[in-house]
Amino acid sequence: WCVEEGAEHTFTFAEMEAMSNRAANLFQSYGIGRGDKVMLVLKRHYQFWFAILALHKLGAVAVPGTHLLTEKDLKYRYEMAEVKAIVCTSDGDVREHADAAQKACPFMKVKMSAGGYGRPMEGWIDFDRALEDQPDTFERRETSTRDVMLLYFTSGTTGQPKMVVHNYQYPIAHIVTAKYWHCVDPDGLHLTLAETGWAKAVWGKLYGQWFMGAGIFVYDFEKFVPSDLLELITKYRITTFCAPPTVFRFFIKEDLSKYDLSCLQHTTIAGEALNPEVFQQFYKATGLRLMEAFGQTETTVQCATLKGMTPRPGSMGKPNPVYHLDLVDEDLNPVRPGEVGEIIIRPKENQVGIFDGYYRDPDLTAQVWR
User: Fold this and answer.
1) CA distance 188 to 206
2) Rounded to whole angstroms, how far apart are CA atoms 29 and 21?
3) Which of 157, 201, 257, 310 is surrounded by the most beta carbons within 10 Å?
4) pLDDT in tens, 265-303
5) For the purposes of burial, counting CB atoms within 10 Å of the CB of 72, is it exposed (0-12), middle (13-18) or buried (19 or more)?
6) Nearest-CA neighbor of 65 among 53, 83, 54?
7) Running DSSP on this structure, what letter comes out for residue 50?
8) CB-count burial class (<10 Å; 0-12, 13-18, 19+) for 103
9) For residue 274, which of 240, 247, 241 has the smallest C-alpha distance?
10) Closest CA to 61 of 27, 94, 29
């Protein structure tokens, strides 16, 4: 983990276990337990990993959110998800927005801030300092595979954000994400650029990568500067890298010959359509093909250019073997080649990787599960 200013920290798995145990003890001391909803608004701070692992150990529900949320956004999330606590960055005005939103939500009782460069604020617990006083052992609470583990709000591009529920089976579906799409190296470092408020973060910064024993590299930055990121890839010898196509559009505008990118073994993209010209220019400069994928907050990777496939620029690949994907018309009949259809998943019994439904919205859940 490193920041623009140059500070860095390296954590072993043993240290992650100890720090998440401390966080679990801290949360428990403030009355947070199984089923309680806790918002995590932590940008790319390393404290995100301590907190989310701690909530899993408690059987509590992590509700990640971006630091760009305003008072109105936070109030909506507090109310809809029945949030009991928040752990947020001390950077910027996130805490001020969180305080203002809390006034209408008396059930939101616990506020902690971590990382960043903000000053202490009245009514807020210093997460980092409080961890120092907690024991580093914790007996994990028993949970069921069907218990709620994660609650993600969608981006709300078509109406109010929806609350996506994932259970404790969800992480294992990301083995495909890490092993066959990201192609992580157990002896290397994987970098997914996503901020922890979005589902893409756990796609690329946690579950699958750790199942495969790979190290995770995190760059905690405010403003994206292509040359800075390229220098970090070179300095820390990043082996696998995933980012939206926009990042690669900026990369090819740089003089890539100035950077030793020989460490990179595999590069992947998601989040938006790829311009074939970007693919060709990056391939010409580095010899690396950009392997595209598509998925949703409600799922893991649905379609991808997986290991062993030759990418077709502009194509999002073929179905992930975890799912039975189909292309259908409005009557759910399969369409013929060349016809436009809707992508659907025909779930298997006890399907892993796909969400349990929309929290507190049975009508919408029934609609998409038809």
Assistant:
1) 15
2) 12
3) 201
4) 999 999 988 889 999 999 999 999 999 999 999 999 999
5) exposed
6) 83
7) H
8) exposed
9) 247
10) 27
